[in-house]
Every structure is written in structure tokens, then in C-alpha cells.
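fyi for ur records
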Amino acid sequence: MKKVNKYFYITKISLSNNFVYFGDFLIRNFFFLFIIYIYMMLWTNIYGSKGGNVAGLTLNQMIWYLVVTEIVTLSRSNIFMEATQDVKNGNIAYMLNKPYNYILYCFSNSLGEMGIKLLNNTIMGFIIGILCVGPLKNFSLIHLPFIIISILIGIFINFFIHISLSLTSFWLEENSAFFWIYNKLVFTLGGMLMPLELFPKWLRSIAINLPFAYVTYAPAKLAVNFSYSGFIYTIAFQLVYLGFFFILSMIIFRKGARALNVNGG
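which gave:
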């Protein structure tokens, strides 16, 4: 129990520290407002020429879909840069002797940052959605807890992919290309730019099984077109990917730490 408590206190301290910057995060969300405004102009023109239903979604559902994908994406922590710097500047050598697991420490510490950002982005996203297209049609508060669970797991998958990529800095001097490529894959194959239903059938059948889709597309689709069967399907895939990338990050860290010890770090 003590092992769990120390991570709980790390999260608690991180929440307190990040809550101080709540106002700063809110101001930064003008970027969020700008993105959704651009999307709304774009999709309003597309719906004007295509009709009232695109990819099985109305304009109201499409804007809310994009709001949810942005909430998930913008609620990530800066773990890629932080973990990369820990390795490059040698701080990781001091942290190896601390009475905690480095991966779990980073996750607990990032929960505070991600939690404040998620709260902030959700408030801003709700206001933007209401102002742009009104309330989400056919939405029921009964479904909200299930949607929140899917959004949280999407954010956690994103975290463990980021930290796995950042730990390649044990072996690579420059690894920022991984960060750039991964985020572009989420932008496209993850359905952040548009729902996967708009892809060619062959590409959609591939993208729907990739982890990027379960970071942004799946939670957003669940939010605008909820069904209990869809929730079970989505959560099953998300948990598999969450477990996979958690284990992968542990393996990469252990191999990196072993290499560091062998080299006298």
C-alpha cells in the first residue's frame, strides 16, 4: 500500500503545482478556439456542398467530434521533452537510485499536468461547441462516464507512446523526429483531422486497427455516436494498446538503464 501511496502523493503535489497555472492554461486555449473556428469554416463549406450528412455525421456531430479530438490531443503532458532531457543531461543516473520506478514516477507526476489541462480544455471545448453549433444532438448524461473513461484511456495511451519514444534517447543523440512523425500519424491516421470514415475503405480498415485511432478517433466517435456495443469494442482495444505501450516503456527503460550502468553512468 505504501508503494501506491507514494505515487498518489506525487500526483497530488503535481496537481497543486499545476493548478497555480490554471489561468495561464486558459489563456493558451485561445489557440484551441482558433483551431475549432478554422474547422467550423471548413466543414460548414463542405456540408454546404455535400449535404447534411458526411461520413454518417451531421455538422453538429462533426464539430463536437473535432472538439473531443482536440481535447484529448491538447491534454497531453510534456513528457517527451522532459524524459529526453533527463537522459541527455544525466539526471536519469541520479533518479535510478530513488525509491520509485521512473516510468510510474513520470506517469504520476504527469497526471497532475494532464488533469489540469483536461479540465481546462473540457471547459473551453464545451463553450466553443455550444457557441459554434449548439448542444450535441442526441447526447445523454448517462453516457458521459463511459465517454470520460475512453477519453482518459486515450490520453494515457498517448502518454506511454510518448515516453517510449523519448527513452530512445538512451541510444540516439537526436530523437525529436520520432515525436514529429508520431504526432503527424495521430493527426492523420488517428482521425484528428477528419473521421476515418472519410478514408478509402482499404486505408480505413488498416487505420482502425492502429493505436493512433484509439488515442483520438475512438473516444471522439464514441462521444458523438454512443452505443454500449461501441463502448465495449473501443475499451477492449484501448486496454490492449494501453497495456502494450506500458510494458514497452518498461522494457525500453530497463534496457536503457542497463546500458547506462554498463557504460559507467
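The chain has a mean pLDDT of 88. thats all i got for now
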